[in-house]
Amino acid sequence: MIDPLQTSLKVGASGLEAQSRRMRVLSENLANAQATGKTPGSDPYARKVISFESQLDEATGTNFVKVSGIDRHQAPFRIEHNPGHPAADGKGFVKLPNVDVLVEVADMREANRSFEANLQVMRQAREMISMTIDLLRNG
Amino acid sequence: MSPIQLFNVVSQHNRWLSARQATIAGNVANVNTIGYKAVDVEPFEMAMAEARVAVKATNSAHMVPAAADGPATRVQDSDTWDITHSGNSVSMEQELIKAGEVNRAFRLNTSVAKAFHRMMLASAKV
Amino acid sequence: MIERISPSLSTPAAPSTLGVDATRPVAGAGVQEAAGVDFASMLGDLAAKTAGDVRNAETLSIAGVRGQASVQQVVEAVMSAEQSLQTAIAVRDKVVSAYLEISRMSI
Questions:
Q1: Which of residues 2-61 of C touch A (CB under 8 A)?
Q2: What is the C-alpha separation between C41 and C98, in angstroms, rounded?
Q3: pTM (2 decimals)?
Q4: Would B29 disulfide with which of A65, C5, C20, C56, CB 3.0-4.6 Å?
């Protein structure tokens, strides 16, 4: 017999894990927003994007979430004209990461909000379990 | 006479509320999943009206939580406020509002059950 | 314990609710055996129900510890056991005190 409140805790935990992995990817993007290659004409840091998929748990009928993959974003690299740069190609163009800092920061804020929401749901499920057990308490 | 009916209703309502909390948790966890559609349990009156023990699914993708000692709660697609262009139909605000309601109702149920239980015990004291 | 006391006691009216009628004083020794069987069997049923409830609560508690029963099920079973046990104790106390009262009656 499955306890739906225990299941809520597990589902919330899967949400927490997904969102914190997302934040890790986002901070990696932010940290490497200016990282170029070392040799002339080489590729810079490529922006990573995380994608989620839902996973139906047969026993309880609830949808967990899991990370389906961390892939490179397909947008082209930014090109800057910087002939003196070690990574400048023959024409003096340097490829820079396709990371838009503003987008990553906004994404981080949303990831934070989702993380908090998962926490809230877990907190409430835990309170509901506690209230049920409290029925047996004297006084 | 003992308030058996009250204990039954409160117990069933709490079971339904627990199942609802589980679907809310699933929706919140999948708030960023592409193509995910929010789900919700069927209304309490419907779950109570049919004394349904067998598991019924609205479509093959929906399994319902099996309750061995009470009516099973059917999961259905919920009416949400909007759908993003990624196909995700979870509204965080709606889910959190629902969670607040669930919590409040659960608290009321357990308080009532506790009060009546204490009354029962007190009335049997010599 | 209730089973041992019940055959020696009898009451003309079968109680409708245990809580109320347990407080009524028991009649004298010369009462019909037929009416006595009702009360006796009722006490026996109460004892059996209480034992069953407690056993059920115990089973569910163990299952709950193992993770096989939900918290709500365990709590409900324990509450039921508490209620029937409390009732049984009250009835037993009343029956015992009534028996003692009878035994003190001068013939």
A1: none
A2: 18
A3: 0.78
A4: A65
